[in-house]
Amino acid sequence: MKVELINHTPEPGRSAAHAALTCYSEKVPEKEKMSQEKIEEILEKIKESGHHSIIEHASFTFAIQEVSRTLTHQLVRHRLASYSQQSQRYVDIEDLDPVVPDSIEENEEARKRFDGLMEEVKDTYMELKEKDEVPLEDARFVLPNATKTNIIVTMNARELWHFFSLRCCKRAQWEIRDMANRMLELVKDKAPIIFEEAGAPCVRGPCPESEEFFCGEPIED
Amino acid sequence: MKVELINHTPEPGRSAAHAALTCYSEKVPEKEKMSQEKIEEILEKIKESGHHSIIEHASFTFAIQEVSRTLTHQLVRHRLASYSQQSQRYVDIEDLDPVVPDSIEENEEARKRFDGLMEEVKDTYMELKEKDEVPLEDARFVLPNATKTNIIVTMNARELWHFFSLRCCKRAQWEIRDMANRMLELVKDKAPIIFEEAGAPCVRGPCPESEEFFCGEPIED
Amino acid sequence: MKVELINHTPEPGRSAAHAALTCYSEKVPEKEKMSQEKIEEILEKIKESGHHSIIEHASFTFAIQEVSRTLTHQLVRHRLASYSQQSQRYVDIEDLDPVVPDSIEENEEARKRFDGLMEEVKDTYMELKEKDEVPLEDARFVLPNATKTNIIVTMNARELWHFFSLRCCKRAQWEIRDMANRMLELVKDKAPIIFEEAGAPCVRGPCPESEEFFCGEPIED
Amino acid sequence: MKVELINHTPEPGRSAAHAALTCYSEKVPEKEKMSQEKIEEILEKIKESGHHSIIEHASFTFAIQEVSRTLTHQLVRHRLASYSQQSQRYVDIEDLDPVVPDSIEENEEARKRFDGLMEEVKDTYMELKEKDEVPLEDARFVLPNATKTNIIVTMNARELWHFFSLRCCKRAQWEIRDMANRMLELVKDKAPIIFEEAGAPCVRGPCPESEEFFCGEPIED
Predict the structure, then answer these.
(1) Which residues in chain B touch residue D48, judged by CB atoms under 8 angstroms apart?
(2) Yes or no, beta carbons of A9 and D11 under 8 Å apart
(3) Which residue from C minimizes the CA distance to A50?
(4) Chain B residue numbers touching A99 (CB-CB < 8 A)
(5) Quick check: C101 and C192 in contact, CB under 8 A?
(6) Taken in order C163, D161, D164, A25, is the CA torsion positive or negative?
(7) Which candidate in A185, B65, C25, C78 could, as Cys together with B2 as Cys, close a disulfide (CB 3.0–4.6 Å)?
(8) Which residues in chain C touch residue D99, judged by CB atoms under 8 angstroms apart?
(9) How do the pLDDT tens digits run along chain C, 221 residues long?
(10) For residue D57, how far is the Cα from the chain centroid?
């Protein structure tokens, strides 16, 4: 897996603070003239007041590489985002190179079985797509969930907060959680105040899960 | 594939017409008192004026069964909709029973190869999930795109129009096109005026595709 | 203000429970065969697990009458909803009949001043729109926030939950809070399990507001 | 009215082209290494293929000042966008300074009447808000649609396209059309290829309106 932050709204904190100030001012304030102190002061106040919409003005674009189709099928269920994904209809997956779960990687027998099957898949895919009658979009029906894919994702800061709440939690599936944690680290670097308390809910307070779903190991402060 | 319309806003046409009339009236009209003629008259006018938002008040829920994960990965990219999909994380896929593309079905060699691989997949999946160390959510990494899945989908009439424009077109992938056509037939039955001209753009006028993408066989009136 | 529930997805609870069960079953269950007990059992479980998306399959349509434009300007900021609002561009507001805030109603001097101004507004609006050169869409520039308007609103149950959390809270402006409370009562009647704990957050637990914004009077159980 | 583009995703064209290329490549291409020629070539192809989603990765933020509440009530109906608007609940509108439609401005009698009423409104608002019993959020009920307001708007390029199609058209109300035209000019400057053909539909081809709504003066090439 490779996760890069490839683009984002310049100065996310300034943008959010400027939008907030506009709501409470007679005139639109001059964005470039706001001091760093003023920005921080506004963002702190906003956190307390729950006025979350102002961080929507900052968007972040990630290039996600070499993740499984299992991950992307979950990811694209987040609807307040924009996606551009590698097409299995048009791209010939020359090198299957699957994502291997740790539980399989670490079990010799399982790993062998897994690898053996992947070889079979590769051969079948190659053979099918070489037939004139079978288009690429049909040959891909044999490709497994483990197949690597790439996807460009753009989310605004508010949706990212929501995404991190769900996907950085230990209840999330391991692969998407790994990705979410990497994304969080990257945006924290660019917008530290906005994302200071982002992540699984246990970062901010008691776990909201019921007893049945509580992982028992909340993140410690 | 099995496509059922399992629920919808009662009287979609009346609802849309009533909403439209509200925009142009001093008082909210009495919905139940609108005559069928009045409803039809309003809906015809709306079509001409391009006031599409009024059909958003009618929603339709479909149960889609036995389609491939290839299909659902495309489907859930439509963001103005609600989805509940069978979870491969929690549901043990006891019977793989894959979707087989026609191009493979009709080529004996391809079909044999495909079937052979599917048997291998089934055995591997069974063997992996029987290991204590490999949870179901990891065993599924070997399942192919062809694996059957079920999904409940709710879209409002406006989003359905958009969906049909893209997915009933011959440029769409065959499986999702088949599904879209079945959905269209079902909603046409319940809301004939609203969906009268829904479908691929060539139902309504000249194909908007560029020469490169024109299928050459627009739907005839 | 008049708030009516004029349409909704039939059997919202059954629909939500059916969608939930689909996620965890090998086959799509038969919706009509689910017993009331089964439905309740599933919905209770869902509440605990935080699997909120399943209630999106149920939508509710309200006719809201005789509310101020102040209210609707706030209302339409909720983006996951569908609206059809009386148009001031096309509808001649023959009878201004403004919404009067209690604080003005109950202060004789304020009320007199307010009424006097409204008479002035009415006369000016009439005079302007009678001029051939001034179209209705320009005459309305003199109409006040207090002007009554009508709007048809459709939201799904999940968005309604979110809406009630914000707008039933005492921090919300009085008019939209009044409307939200009426809407809540109406949907609770039709879908009691789904909306059992809906409303301001203090219905469900401690107030999430910071000290500065805490109203001091949480709703008691 | 004052319309400024105060922020945007850096290099919108490069971002969109990079996302498009990702869909059709085995690896995510290196964004910074794409030549200007390559970018233009991809964007031209995309235009033909109708693959609009790739321009969603570029967002634009505008500061809109001194527009009427009539305008913003229309504007915020566009749901795929983020807004931060001056609050009449919290901001004391010290200087009413209304937006005056040309049709009123240019008619001496109408203008006089309008100005007279605005003076009355100002006095009433001042008097009301000075009473301890009447909070600012109630005093504003007398403020007219013409009242000036400020709003920060963020939309991605795809939603902007849609917005321009509706709001640059002569059927749109004059004030929002003026604003849309200014926004279009600003983004065309920053992302000329993406917005080359944006605007009212008659910029790109024949008017899609029915005879009844055709303005008779399509924009000439």
Answers:
(1) 210, 212-213
(2) no
(3) C209
(4) 141
(5) no
(6) positive
(7) B65
(8) 141
(9) 999 999 999 999 999 999 999 999 999 999 999 999 999 999 998 888 877 899 999 999 999 999 999 999 999 999 999 999 999 999 998 888 999 999 999 999 999 999 999 999 999 999 999 999 999 999 999 999 999 999 999 999 999 999 999 999 999 999 999 999 999 999 999 999 999 999 999 998 888 877 777 888 887 54
(10) 18
Q: Which of C167, C171, C182, C204 is catalytic?
A: C167
The count of other CB atoms within 10 Å of the CB of residue D78 is 17
* Cβ-nearest to C48 among A49, A50, A212: A212
The one catalytic residue in B14, B167, B177, B182 is B167
- Collect all residues with Cβ–Cβ distance below 8 Å to A111 and sequence separation of at least 6: A100, A104, A105
Question: What interface predicted TM-score (ipTM) does this complex get?
Answer: 0.94
Q: What is the spatial distance between Cα B190 and Cα B194, in angstroms, rounded to a whole number?
A: 9
pLDDT digits (tens, 9 = 90+) for A115-124: 999 999 999 9
> What residue type is assigned to position D13 of the chain?
G
Is C141 close to D110, i.e. CB distance below 8 A? no
HEC-encoded secondary structure of chain C: CEEEEEEECCCHHHHHHHHHHHHCCCCCCCHHHCCHHHHHHHHHHHHHHCCHHHHHHCEEEEEEEEEEHHHHHHHCCCCCCEEEECCCCCCCCCCCCCCCCHHHHCCHHHHHHHHHHHHHHHHHHHHHHHCCCCCHHHHHHHCECCCEEEEEEEEEHHHHHHHHHHHCCCCCCHHHHHHHHHHHHHHHHHCHHHHCCCCCHHHCCCCCCCHHHCCCCCCCC
Q: Which two tokens stand for residue D105?
A: 């401005």
- In chain A, the residue whose alpha carbon lies closest to the alpha carbon of D94 is A26
